[in-house]
Design a protein that fits this description.
With 120 residues, the protein is mainly alpha-helical. The protein contains six helices and two strands, in the order H-E-H-H-H-H-H-E. The protein has one domain. Helices cover 57% and strands 3% of the residues. It has a two-stranded antiparallel sheet with strand order 1-2. Helix 1 crosses helix 4.
């Protein structure tokens, strides 16, 4: 197996074991940004964080492109986040959301877990 394919398999294993995953950014301020589409965007974003799975072939392709530069590093989040954003935008457009609104919704995800806010 090619090292790039092994890397993709390792990333997919981490994804399936949920040690790597999508997190939602704050949606509190988004209703103004998404107008009448805010409810649908919120529902699809919540669903998407739990259901989206990267495909192996696309992951290998994006890793190859990312690592194509000499001495380049390619953290999984640098590949997975744009993949998820592309898929989310396409999902919203397929549900009738205007392309401009769907494009703004690409930024609703992060690969970093939210900071816990504790009350003392």
């Amino acid at each position: 197996m090619e090292p790039l394919e092994q890397m993709a398999d390792d990333v997919l294993f981490a994804w399936q074991s949920r040690s790597l995953r999508l997190w939602l950014t704050s949606l509190r301020d988004c209703p103004e940004e998404f107008d009448n589409w805010a409810g649908l965007v919120r529902l699809r974003a919540n669903y998407f964080t739990d259901q989206w799975q990267p495909t192996r072939s696309e992951l290998v392709s994006r890793l190859r492109a990312c690592l194509g530069q000499p001495d380049s590093e390619c953290p999984p989040s640098d590949v997975l986040l744009p993949m998820a954003a592309d898929a989310f935008e396409a999902d919203l457009v397929s549900k009738g959301v205007p392309k401009t609104v769907a494009n703004r919704a690409r930024d609703l995800f992060t690969m970093d877990p939210p900071v816990a806010q504790w009350k003392f």
